Amino acid sequence: MTAFARRLAGHLARGLVMILIVTTVSFFVIRSVPGDPMAAKYEKMVEQGMSPEAAQRAVEVLFGFAPTGSLWQQYVDYMSGLVRLDLGQSLTVPGVGVSTVLFSAAKWTILPVLAGTLLSFLIGVIMGVYAAIRRSGKLGDILAISGSLLHGVPQYVLALLLGAVFTTLWPILPQGGTADIMFEPGFNAGYIGSLVEHAMLPVLTYALAGYGGWILAMKSSVVTVLGDDFILAAELRGLKRGFIFRYVARNAILPLFTILALSLGMLFGGAIFIERIFNYPGLGLMLIDSITNRDYALMGGAFLLITAAIIIANIAADLFYTVIDPRVRSGEGTT
Amino acid sequence: MTAPVITMGDGRTTMRRNFWHGVWRVLKRKPSRMAGMVIILGFAFMGVFGPLFYPDPLPRDTANLYAAPSWEHLFGTDFEGTDVLALVVTGSSYVLLSAVITAIITVVLGTGIGLFAGFRRGRWDTVLMRITDMKLTIPGLPLLLVLSTIWKFGSAIEMGLVLGLLGWGGVARAVRSQTLSLRERGFIEAARGLGLSTTHIIGRELLPSMAPFIAMNMLIAVTGAVYAQVGLFFLGVLPFEANNWGVMLNLAVFGGGAMSSPAALPYLAAPLLAILLLTLGIVLAVDAMDEIFNPRLREE
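^ Those are the sequences you sent over. The predicted structure of the assembly is below.
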């Protein structure tokens, strides 16, 4: 268990360093934007008849840090705000902190991404086993080609195709939002039904985008395992095909958990397109909106939260892998 | 003195001829691979010569906005009455030029860093791979979006440069692991035992055996670059300076309302088809590369 703890500590340290880097990048990007947004806001307030001191204070509140002092001082203030989860004030949603806005948006990204990933994992893994067993036949060929194509096509193309089919040509699914406004948010059948209906297209896109990768990975993993001695031994012992199937699948699935992290990360990145296309108010749409509205505090926050989600997904997948694969657990230091 | 040089040159040309012969054989075995190569060559032709077939600026037909597909306009017209097919063809040069630049930068940087790290091992390896892992963890698209507030990616060359500088991580990792496995093989050991210089070993022994692998990565980098920039323009965070596929997608969806009314659908379908076709071509070609690279796959 100490090995596990050491692994966890290492991951956390690396994750913190990454978050530090990402915050620093967004801090300096915000600073280097042409036509300093804070100065512009300040000028505008003074023009509107505010006293310079009041305008100064208002700008400080808006951006969540004092724009005075050396660059280093500003940087330290920004970082210490981050520790208190204070990312400043959003310009587009006045009076509400950036972190509040972001956390309310985060669930609309995380839940559909997780649902889509699980769905694609289940289907892709099962299909991958078939693609490997039937790899010299027609079925295997078709499965492998469908996998490469779906793996190769970018998520926004999938989303646009699904959108064109299900909201334009054959309008059976709603477009935009998380639920119809006529339902009272809460635990009632109408609202939940509407939630599911609205999440259908995003989840379907995430699932299709992930499926190709799983099928290809599972296929190659199964092909490797099929050559192992223990399968031959099982066959010689006269085990039924169903048992062999389980032997193979169980051993072949392990390497896939490393890909889980990558795929989650990719989906979080792709969420930007999918949320923009289906007008689904998650973190990605928030990032786009903050850029078009030049709301830099919100932009920095959204970028940070997306990156943090990816880092956490990476760590979680790696730890999960440690837990389920005894070889990694015992053989520490072989990373 | 000159004789050995000539025979050496001869040896290398026959080797090269054998290589191209092998490529041809692998392509010939499956018609799908041929199709992939034909598609890629077709796109290259379109990117280089396509704009020459159309007047600049493209003619507008203001009486015919969002026209349905017809023989005159195969994919209909856009919001200004411009032929959509013409937009796809002329828009391809921006997309393809920046994708090629991205691929070259990605592959040169990635191969260089991967080879160096894998061959040297030790401290340099650790430092370089830490940096690579960090690059791989920071999500590319959100970072590009944030950067788009300071850079405008005005020209295709700028776009290619930025994408290339952000994209070498994956190639570096892949090349490093290839190098690690190759350097333990007999012929590299022998070369080191003979006291050949590092540049000779890398340039003459390692690189040629990795060439197909690198070519494969280059094709993947081209696809990635096409997706990334089309996506950036599609999201609408960059100014629409040039006509390209991403701008078309954006205007079709958010200007023409292709997600709710069928009128703009052909306008949306044309660039989508172009992207799908290019992907298909590259996937099929990569399949062939895979076989050239991995001889074990050849016996079926």
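Chain A touches chain B through 48 residues (CB under 8 Å). Chain A has 14 helices and no strands.

Shout if you want it in another format.
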